[in-house]
Amino acid sequence: MENLKNKTIGSFVAEDFRTAAVFSKYRIDFCCKGNRTVTEVCEKQNIDADALLENVLQVVQSENNGTIDFNSWPLDLLADYIEKTHHRYVEEKTNVLLPFLDKLCKVHGANHPELFKINELFIGCAGELSQHMKKEELVLFPFVKRMVKTKDTDGVLHQPSFGTVANPIAMMMHEHDNEGERFREIATLTDNYTPPADACTTYRVTFAMLKEFEADLHKHIHLENNILFPKAVILEKDFVEVE
User: Which stretches of the chain are DSSP H helices?
Assistant: First the structure.
């Protein structure tokens, strides 16, 4: 048990994504801040580390009913999955949430002024994520796929314009941190997506969609921060000759 306390949150989730539910229950960030150890997190958030690990181990040792082992996937497949699953999700849900939030501000803003701040935060999130995903799709992911193909064919990896893959990765992780912080604020303003007593159907649907959006974003960032990015850095080091 003591050795597990020095293990990072992100590595637990990378090995078994079902543990994400345990960390979420304790309000532990497993995506943007997944590089912290159990000890670090528990000391900072005043959590009983033994109780937390007991819950985690119960999940890990239970029968795995079809949970996808993303940690075993080749990086080119994982990059494609993130783009086709999570990037598309963000694009589709953003187009629905923006007009919903705008409507809530017009109809309920007088009684619930926090809606204006929630709307402002989500508008910022939508714009930043759109640019962020394009950088991944046009720059980072193609290079990751090229590394995989080059290694498979015993080729030579030519140095990209950004120098090393660690450079765009650092930028992407910084942007992940920004969006994680933005959604923490949204969660606080919505009382963890709890609609007020006078909420109409649109109000309730919007809050449910925001909660789902945050959950998908956590998984999205986890797959990149804790699996794709560190493995891409390791893969790049496998190439002896970088021109």
Answer: 9-15, 19-25, 38-45, 49-61, 75-81, 88-108, 114-135, 141-152, 166-189, 201-222, 229-237
